[in-house]
TrEMBL record, chain A:
Protein name in the entry: Acyl carrier protein
Localization in the cell: Cytoplasm
Annotated Carrier domain residues: 4-79
Name of the encoding gene: acpP
GO MF, one example: acyl carrier activity
Statement: the UniProt record of this protein carries the keyword Phosphoprotein: yes
Keywords associated with the record: Cytoplasm, Fatty acid biosynthesis, Fatty acid metabolism, Lipid biosynthesis, Lipid metabolism, Phosphopantetheine, Phosphoprotein
Length: 79, 408
């Protein structure tokens, strides 16, 4: 799966869970500062991403996933 | 003790009869029933397969993402509160948020969330349980959400007294203003528990009507053929305001919340006291608190839920506490029983009865019970000058709340 495909998949999750416009989702965007995803919604995003990409994202990793790019890299490495 | 006058300056509701106050009131005056058949698969196995479901689904009014984190009881509380807020004209009034309070309760709370998330837990494991579960099911959730939406900072309260909740929440709101803790309080009740478990529970108590083949005729307070209440869902919210505060900003005033009486039976967890002493004391206190004569109460919006025992017990209490003269109605004949929202919706009906000089009908009262010896506006709305009116609410647990509204 390419980084673009993972970004698109995350954009779908972010739209479903937090109402983020898919066009706003890019690797450089911060989940909290740019996309307005709060901590509870982030939990939903993580669980949905685990399911969609078949990966495990432990809670102690989630705090390191500041940007969409961080998440893409983590998922890319795990899958 | 002298205290400031409290008036009602805004109303909001979403009910089985309409998505707002105007449509709900219209339906009431026309004697429409909000009761219909329950169509989900789970209803098939239940002894009760009817309910008074919301006329307008919250999904039509709130966005999808927001609804993901709201229990249905919270969503409709927000909808009703925003309507009341807009109606009161407080949006850009410069009201200090530290003088704005909230008192919104629910009889049962976020049961739909609890049950739905338990299904997810059982089917998919704990990691799939929504992180929004706790704020969705906590009983203070509706009040907290309303407070958040309106930025209320004088205190957010969530009363729970079963079917007396809405009326007790309004009483607490009045007390907050009288005690000087707030200038404006958004107060009311909300309930959304149309689901197989609450229905099965009430059914097991033999409290609900099983007139499944005639939903619209199932809620029939004081009729000989009544066989229990019909569960309804909805929310009702009032904006209560210190009278001089309302006057200073030139607000439209619907009515005065002149007095309230709260008592507890200390008798049985679900049965009311057989002599209705708790109800009699609540009504008597409310009339005294309003500082009027009981003869001034010309209309009563009764609690009457369409149960065989409760409906007549209230009649006896009214005889003693008010007299033989008032014109009664039970709007539950149309709305069903909104549990924790009942006292709020019925307060709205009482206030609009005063405003319009008309008592909404009690529908399905075809064959009045022998014990009904007070005047009821049966099957047709009745025009009547109403300077003062009473609204009764009683709840499991022995809660009795009576509210007196008077013409502004």
């Amino acid at each position: 799966m390419t980084r673009d495909e993972i970004t698109t998949g995350l954009a779908e999750i972010l739209e479903e869970v937090a109402g983020v416009t898919p066009d706003d989702v890019a690797e450089g965007k911060s989940f909290t500062d740019d996309l307005d995803v709060d901590s509870l919604s982030m939990v939903e995003v993580v669980v949905a991403a685990e399911e969609k990409f078949g990966v495990k994202i432990p809670d102690n990793e989630v705090q390191n996933l500041k940007t969409v790019g961080d998440a893409v890299s983590y998922i890319e490495a795990q899958s | 003790m002298t205290h400031p006058d409290v008036v009602v300056t805004g109303l909001g509701a979403t009910t089985p009869l309409g998505g707002d106050v105007a449509s709900t009131w219209d339906a009431m005056l026309n004697g429409q029933s909000g009761v219909s058949a329950l169509t989900p698969d789970w209803a098939e196995q239940l002894p009760v397969r009817i309910a008074a479901q919301l006329a307008v689904d919250p999904a039509e009014l709130l966005d999808r993402v927001k609804l993901r984190r709201l229990d249905r009881s919270e969503a409709i509380a927000i909808i009703a509160a925003k309507q009341a807020w807009a109606d009161a004209g407080l949006a850009d009034s410069g009201l200090d948020p530290e003088r704005l309070g909230v008192s919104v309760g629910s009889g049962i709370g976020g049961a739909l969330t609890l049950l739905n998330q338990d299904d997810i837990l059982e089917a998919s494991g704990p990691r799939r349980v929504s992180p929004h579960t706790i704020p969705m099911l906590m009983p203070n959730g509706p009040a907290a959400w309303v407070g958040l939406e309106l930025q209320a900072r004088a205190g957010v309260h969530s009363v729970a007294s079963a079917c007396a909740t809405g009326a007790e929440a309004i009483t607490l709101g009045m007390d907050m203003i009288r005690a000087g803790r707030a200038d404006v309080v958004v107060a009311g009740g909300t309930e959304a528990v149309i689901h197989q478990l609450p229905i099965a529970g009430f059914s097991s108590m033999r409290a609900m009507s099983t007139r499944n083949d005639e939903p619209e005729r199932a809620s029939r307070p004081w009729d000989k053929a009544r066989d229990g209440f019909v569960l309804g869902e909805g929310a009702g919210v009032l904006v209560l305001e210190r009278a001089d505060h309302a006057a200073a900003r030139g607000a439209h005033v619907y009515a005065r919340l002149a007095g309230a009486g709260i008592t507890s039976d200390g008798y049985d967890i679900v049965q009311p006291h057989p002599e209705g002493t708790g109800a009699i004391r609540a009504i008597t206190k409310a009339i005294a608190d309003a500082d009027i004569d009981r003869g001034d109460i010309v209309h009563v919006n009764a609690h009457a839920t369409s149960t065989p025992v409760g409906d007549l017990a209230e009649i006896k209490a009214l005889h003693q506490a008010v007299g033989d003269h008032p014109v009664l109605t039970s709007t539950k004949s149309m709305s069903g029983h909104l549990l924790g929202a009942a006292g709020a919706l019925e307060s709205i009906a009482t206030i609009l009865a005063i405003r319009d000089g008309v008592v909404p009908p009690t529908i399905n009262l075809d064959d009045p019970d022998d014990g009904l010896d007070l005047d009821v506006a049966a099957n047709k709305a009745r025009h009547l000058e109403i300077p003062a009116a009473l609204n009764n609410s009683f709840g499991f647990g022995g809660h009795n709340v009576a509210l007196v509204f008077t013409r502004a």
